[in-house]
Design goal:
By secondary structure, this protein is an alpha/beta fold. The chain has 28 helices and 19 strands. Strands 12-11-10-13-14-15-16-17 form an 8-stranded mixed beta sheet, sandwiched between helices. It binds 3-hydroxybutanoyl-coenzyme A and 1,4-dihydronicotinamide adenine dinucleotide (NAI). 3-hydroxybutanoyl-coenzyme A binds next to strand 5 and helix 3.
Length: 694
C-alpha cells in the first residue's frame, strides 16, 4: 500500500510509502485522493497529518511517467481535493519536498519541516514548469518576488529559510510529526483560508519587474523554453483569477512535458543518477576515507583542499618549502573567506573547516593519511619524484591519486611499489566549484580503490565519470578538437567574436576564445609542445594559439590573448594584433563569412566525432558519460542533453554529412559513426556499458 491511514484520536495520520523517493505515481495520487474521501467521511476525524516513510517527503511527480500520457487522477485535482476538504491537512516534511511534493504541501493548511529538509520547485531544471499549482499558490504564500526567484532558479531552500519566507510554519530539530499533530489540531479550531481563495499579490515594485526578468532569462538562459514559460505563468497568476491562472500553468506544463528540451533534461537527470555507479563493483565496498592529503597548493591543490574540507574530511597540504606552503595556505584561506563574504558559508562553518586543515613541508607528516591527491606541476619527473616519496612514507594500503591533466598515470605510478593503490582523480578548475571528476583507473588499480574513488566523488557532491587512459582523457581530448576547429574557422575568415557569439548562441556560457583568455593560453600551449615532441602533429596543431603565446599574450592575466583587455575590465575587445596575426596566415581564397549556424555545424560535429572515437576505444563507457563530462566540465548546454545526446537529436546522418567532405583527414568520420549511420541506429542504443568496439 503506498498510502496507509492510521487513526490517532481525532486526527488521521496519512502515511505515504512509495520508495525510493515517494514520487507521485498514479497509485500514490489515487491513494491520496482516497485518503481525502476517508478523512472527510469519518465524523470523528477533525484534521489530517500527511507524512512520508523512508528518506524523504514526496520528491515530486514521477519523472518516469512523463514519457507516457498522464493517467487520472491528475495531481492538480488531488491537491484541490486536499485543499478543499473541510478538515485541514498539515504536511510533516523531512528530506526533500520538491516539485509536485511541495505543491501537495501547498495544498495543505499548514507545513512543519525538519531542520535539514529542503523545499523547492525544480521543474525548470527538468524542462517543465510547476504543473500542479506551484506558480499560483506559492506567490500567494510567500510573495511574488520570492516565488519568482524560487521557481526560475529551480533551487531548493533549506527549512530555516523556508520558515523565514513564510513557506513553512514551524521547523523542528527531530521528527516533525508531533509538531504537525499539534498544528493540525489547532488549525481544526480555526481553519485558515485555502491559498486558492486568497488574493495573489503582484510584485511590490511593478516598474519593469517582468520585463527585467524576461531580459535576464533571454540573456543568460538563451534558448531555454521552461524558464520563460514559468515567468509567463507567474505573471498570469498575478493578474488573473486563480482558476484561470491555474489553467494557463497546467496547459504550459503539459505542452512542455513532451518537448525536446524536457526529454533532453530528463536524459541528463537519469544519467546523473547513474554517475559513479558501476555494476562490476557492486560487491566491492569502498574503503573508509577518514583523512586526506593534497600535494601542491597551487590553483588546483587549493581548490581540491577546499572540496575535501567541505565534505568534512580532515586534510593536510604538503608543499615544497615554507614560502610556497604559506601561499598554499593563503589560497585555501581565501577560498573560505570568499565563501563567507558572498554569504555562501556561515562563519562558524568556515571555522570548522579551518580546524580540519593543516599544512606541512615534511612528507612524513602524510604517513597517517588514507588518501593523498597529488596536484603539483604538470611534469612527469616532478610527479614521479612526489610519488616515489609518498610511496615510502604512506601506510601500505593508502591510496595515491594524481590530478594530472594529460600525463599517463601508468608512467607516474611506476615510481611506486603499489600501482594497485594508484588512480587518477582529474578535478576541474575551480576544483571546489566544478562538479565533474574524471576517475581514471590504471590497469593495475585494485577494484576497491576504484570503488573508493567513485564513492569519494559522490561524497564531494561531484559527478564522478570513469574514464580510460588516453591523452586528455574524455574532456580535454574533446576540448582540443573544439579549439582546433575554432582556430581553423579563423583562418578561413571568421573572427574570434563571431565564433564566440555562435557558441554562446548554441548555449555555452562562453565561447572558446573568451574561455581560453580566462583560463590562460599557456597550459594548452605547453601541452601541445609535449605532443609535438611525441610526434602527434595533428593533435598539436594550433598555429594561432602558439603564435599568441610566443608574443606573451596568455589571456586576461597578461592584458591580452585572443582579445585585448583594459586595466580592471574583463570585457573582451577585438584585438588589432590578433587580426594582423590571422590575416597574415589566411590564404587568398579563405576570406569568407560564416553564419552562427555554419560555425556551430563545423564545431559540434567535429566534437561528436571525437566522442565516437572515445566510445569506440572504450575510453568512455557510455555516450551518457560523455554527456556528463561535457555538461559538468565544459558548459555544454544541459537542456540539449549533452554532446552525444544532442548528436542523436541532430541525426547521425547529418553529423556524418558535416564530416565526410572535410579535407582534414583527422576529421574523417569514425568507423563507429559510419556503422551506426549505415545500420540506421542511434547512440541511445549504446547507453548501457560496455561500450561498443570499433
Ligand atoms: N521521479 C521518479 N524517480 C525519481 C524521482 C522522481 N521525481 N526523483 C528521484 N528518483 C529516483 C532516481 O532516479 C533514483 O533512481 P535509481 O535508484 O533507480 O537510480 C532514486 O529515485 C534515488 O534518487 P537519488 O539517487 O537522486 O537520491 P538522492 O537521495 O540523492 O536524492 C532527491 C533524492 C533530492 C529527491 C533527488 O532524487 C531529486 O532531486 N529528485 C528530483 C526531484 C524533482 O525534480 N522533482 C520535481 C519533478 S517535476 C514535478 O514534480 C512536476 C510537478 O510540478 C507536476
Ligand atoms: P600550479 O602551478 O598552480 O600549482 C602547482 C603547485 O605545486 C605549486 O604551488 C608548487 O609549489 C607545488 N609543487 C611543485 N612541486 C612540488 C613538490 N615536489 N612538492 C610539493 N609541492 C610541489 O598548478 P595547477 O594549475 O594547480 O596544476 C596542478 C596540476 O593540476 C597539474 O598536473 C595540472 O595539469 C592539473 N590540472 C590543472 C588544471 C588547471 O586548470 N589549472 C585543471 C585540471 C588539472
Amino acid at each position: 500500500m503506498v498510502v496507509t491511514l492510521t487513526r490517532d484520536g481525532d486526527l488521521m495520520v496519512v502515511t505515504v510509502d512509495n520508495p525510493p523517493v515517494n514520487a507521485l505515481s498514479q497509485a500514490l495520487r489515487q491513494g491520496l485522493l482516497d485518503a481525502v474521501a476517508t478523512v472527510e467521511s469519518d465524523p470523528k476525524v477533525r484534521a489530517a497529518v500527511l507524512h512520508c516513510a523512508g528518506r524523504t517527503f514526496i520528491a515530486g511527480a514521477d519523472i518516469r511517467e512523463f514519457g507516457s500520457p498522464s493517467q487520472p487522477p491528475h495531481l492538480p485535482d488531488v491537491i484541490a481535493a486536499i485543499e478543499g476538504t473541510g478538515k485541514p491537512w498539515v504536511a510533516a516534511i523531512h528530506g526533500s519536498a520538491l516539485g509536485g511534493g511541495l505543491e501537495v504541501a501547498l495544498g495543505c493548511a499548514g507545513r512543519v519541516a525538519r531542520a535539514e529538509s529542503r523545499l523547492g520547485l525544480p521543474e525548470v531544471t527538468l524542462g517543465v514548469i510547476p504543473g500542479a499549482g506551484g506558480t499560483v499558490r506559492l506567490p500567494r504564500l510567500i510573495g511574488m518576488e520570492t516565488a519568482t526567484e524560487m521557481i526560475l532558479s529551480g533551487k531548493p531552500i533549506d527549512a530555516e529559510r523556508a520558515r523565514a519566507k513564510g513557506l513553512v510554519d514551524l521547523v523542528t530539530e527531530g521528527d516533525p510529526l508531533p509538531s504537525a499533530r499539534t498544528l493540525a489540531r489547532s488549525l481544526s479550531e480555526t481553519p485558515p483560508h485555502p491559498l486558492s481563495r486568497r488574493p495573489c499579490p503582484d510584485v511590490e515594485d511593478g516598474s519593469g519587474f517582468w520585463e527585467g526578468r524576461e531580459a535576464t532569462l533571454n540573456a543568460k538562459g538563451a534558448g531555454q523554453e521552461a524558464p520563460l514559460a514559468a515567468l509567463k505563468a507567474l505573471r498570469s497568476a498575478a493578474t488573473r483569477p486563480f482558476d484561470e491562472a491555474m489553467g494557463i500553468a497546467r496547459s504550459a506544463f503539459l505542452a512542455l512535458r513532451d518537448s525536446t528540451q524536457a526529454k533532453a533534461l530528463r536524459h541528463v537527470f537519469l544519467v546523473e543518477r547513474g554517475a559513479g555507479s558501476d555494476p562490476t563493483l557492486a560487491d566491492i565496498p569502498p574503503r573508509p576515507i577518514e583523512s586526506c592529503g593534497v600535494v601542491g597548493g597551487g590553483t588546483m591543490g587549493a581548490g581540491i583542499v577546499a572540496a575535501l574540507l567541505e565534505a568534512g574530511l580532515p586534510t593536510r597540504l604538503l608543499e615544497r618549502d615554507e614560502a610556497t606552503l604559506a601561499q598554499g595556505l593563503n589560497r585555501v584561506g581565501r577560498i573560505l573567506d570568499g565563501a563567507v563574504t558572498k554569504g555562501r558559508l556561515a562563519p562558524e562553518l568556515a571555522e570548522a573547516r579551518r580546524a580540519l586543515f593543516s599544512g606541512t613541508t615534511d612528507a612524513r607528516d602524510m604517513a597517517d593519511r588514507d588518501l593523498v591527491i597529488e596536484a603539483v606541476f604538470e611534469d612527469l619527473d616532478v610527479k614521479r619524484t612526489v610519488f616515489r616519496t609518498l610511496d615510502k612514507v604512506l601506510k601500505a594500503d593508502a591510496i595515491i591519486a594524481t590530478n594530472t591533466s594529460y600525463l599517463d598515470p601508468r608512467e607516474i605510478a611506476t615510481a611506486t611499489t603499489r600501482p594497485d593503490r594508484v588512480i587518477g582523480l582529474h578535478f576541474f578548475s575551480p576544483a571546489h566549484v566544478m562538479k565533474l571528476l574524471e576517475v581514471v583507473p590504471l590497469p593495475e588499480t585494485a577494484p576497491d580503490v576504484l570503488a573508493t574513488a567513485l564513492a569519494l566523488g559522490k561524497r564531494l557532491r561531484k559527478i564522478p565519470v570513469r574514464t580510460g587512459i588516453c591523452d586528455g582523457f574524455i574532456g580535454n581530448r574533446i576540448l582540443r578538437i573544439l579549439r582546433r576547429e575554432a582556430e581553423s574557422l579563423l583562418l578561413e575568415g571568421a573572427t574570434p567574436s563571431q565564433v564566440d557569439a555562435a557558441m554562446r548562441a548554441f548555449g555555452f556560457p562562453m565561447g572558446p576564445f573568451e574561455a581560453q583568455d580566462l583560463g590562460g593560453l599557456d597550459i594548452a600551449h605547453l601541452d601541445r609542445r609535449r605532443l609535438a615532441a611525441s610526434c602527434a602533429p595533428a593533435a598539436s596543431w594550433a598555429p594561432l594559439g602558439d603564435a599568441l603565446c610566443d608574443l606573451g599574450r596568455l589571456g586576461q592575466k597578461t592584458g591580452g590573448g585572443w582579445y585585448d583587455y583594459r586595466q580592471g575590465d574583463r570585457h573582451p575587445h577585438p584585438s588589432p594584433t590578433v587580426e594582423e596575426l590571422v590575416a597574415a596566415r589566411r590564404t587568398a581564397t579563405s576570406d569568407r563569412t560564416f553564419s552562427a549556424e555554419e560555425i556551430q555545424n563545423r564545431i559540434i560535429p567535429a566534437m561528436v566525432n571525437e566522442g565516437f572515437h572515445i566510445l569506440a576505444e572504450g575510453i568512455a563507457r557510455t555516450p551518457g558519460d560523455i554527456d556528463l563530462v561535457e555538461i559538468h566540465g565544459y558548459g555544454f548546454p544541459r537542456w540539449r542533453g549533452g554532446l552525444m545526446y544532442h548528436a542523436d537529436q541532430m541525426g547521425l546522418d547529418r553529423i556524418r554529412g558535416a564530416l565526410v567532405n572535410r579535407a582534414d583527414p583527422s576529421l574523417a568520420p569514425s568507423p563507429l559513426l559510419d556503422r551506426l549511420t549505415k545500420e540506421g541506429r542511434t547512440l541511445a542504443d549504446l547507453n548501457a556499458p560496455p561500450a561498443a568496439a570499433e
